[in-house]
Amino acid sequence: MHWLYLSIAALFEAAWTYSLKYLDFKHIKNLAWTSLFSAESWSVISPLLGYIVFGIGNIYFFSLSLKFVSTAVAMAVWTALTLLFIKLADVYIMGEKLIWQEVFFMLLITIGIIGLKVYSKS
Fold first, then answer.
1. What angle, rounded to 10 degrees, do the helices at 100-119 and 71-92 form?
2. What 3-state class would DSSP assign to 27?
3. How many whole angstroms from its chain centre is CA 70?
4. 95 — alpha (psi -120 to 50), left (phi > 0) or beta?
5. Residue 105 three-state SS
6. Which residues, in sequence order, are CB contacts of 7 under 8 Å at separation 6+?
7. What's 35's DSSP letter?
8. Deepest of 41, 58, 85, 116, by most Cβ within 10 A of its Cβ?
9. What is the pLDDT along the chain (122 residues), one digit of tens a residue?
10. Dihedral of the alpha carbons of 93, 73, 12, 95, in degrees to the nearest 10
11. 86 and 17 in contact (C-beta within 8 Å)?
């Protein structure tokens, strides 16, 4: 179950990263609070809400996983899964190309994580 918590935390972290990408404080500052529920306002507020919800979800599930996995291993797995989820979103949602050098270095990270897991005490 603790690996599921880490996976969920990594998904929340990847979503949190994308909410940061689209967050624009200048537009939030200039938002008219009287038209808060209009479609235009929603496109400005939704990245902020995502930032808050995904950030809290990430912290919550990552903290649950730390009760079962050593901190170093949890951090390594969480970071690698987040990187993987972000790259998958870049390729399949944002339409970026998959570069073989990136795949190679992500595999190196994965090998390091497997090594941490195999030789850790948790």
1. 160
2. helix
3. 20
4. left
5. helix
6. 81
7. G
8. 58
9. 788 999 999 999 999 999 988 888 777 777 766 666 676 777 778 888 999 999 999 999 999 999 988 888 888 889 889 988 999 999 998 888 988 998 899 889 888 877 877 787 65
10. -10
11. yes
Among 59, 65, 108, 66, which residue's Cα sits nearest to residue 83? 108
- Please enumerate in sequence order all residues whose Cβ is within 8 A of that of 21, keeping only pairs 6 or more positions apart, or say none: none
Q: Does the global pTM surpass 0.70?
A: yes
Helix (H) or strand (E) holding 60: helix 39-66
Amino acid at 22: Y
The closest of 15, 16, 13, 113 to 69, measured between CA atoms, is 113
Helices (H) and strands (E) in the chain, counts: 5, 0
Cβ contacts of residue 20 below 8 Å, gap of 6+?
47, 51
